[in-house]
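Chapter summary example.
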Amino acid sequence: MHLYTNPLYCILKQSHYINVMSLHQSPNLEQLLRRNDIWRGHSERFVQRDGVDSGYKALNLALQGRGLRPNGGLIDIYQHFHASEWLLFHPAIQQLQQHHQDAYIALISPPALPYINALKQLGIDSTRLLVITPNKLVSSFVETCQSSAFIAVFSWLDRFKLRYPELRKLQLASSAKNGIHVIFRPLHSQQQNFPAHLRLRVNITTENLELNIFKQKGQLQARTVTLALPKAWQALPAHHNLMLSEASRNAKPSHEQA
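The structure predicted for these 258 residues follows.
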């Protein structure tokens, strides 16, 4: 039998032709790495340098954008309890309100209503803060990000257990719209995979706010930043009670040890 009349050879030859054609049509690795939505941990190619000043020099130096990037996607924060939000973000909020005087800042499902007098002392205009308490967090977050009325969105996920596809929707919504977008989650959620551009763990002590940046776009190595708490903050009875509560919590034996 002639080689070209062999059915098996014809099938193999056709299969080889298809594979060769698919190789030419499919993008190679270098082409894929040029895409804005694909990045390597050590590559700074797509890192923007127009970040909003965080108000803390040490934190700006640790961030790839030299600040909080206004269109850099989602910021994912893990903490034991709610004690760092305003301390960490009030300088950035103050700047955003100065540059976008008609824009609002959304607080989605916060653990408590903001204390107006304290916000005034921080230089934050509380009349441009909008508290949202949704039944469905994902749709509320996405719609808020898409609205031109908001320049920043802060969302607390304590009451919601989101799966990866839902978290992915949050990331996509925040990447498509200018502004600062932050979610706060319990510390144990850190083990969950999440495509956020910036992920950090926050721990507050008697004198400092400790930030562990364990993932950010364009940076493979984790970084730790220590921010000193204002003396006035340390003197507050609420801060003192918080530290006592944390000390008591750490002193209690776990169920495994009991």
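To summarize the output: The chain is about 35% helix and 20% strand.
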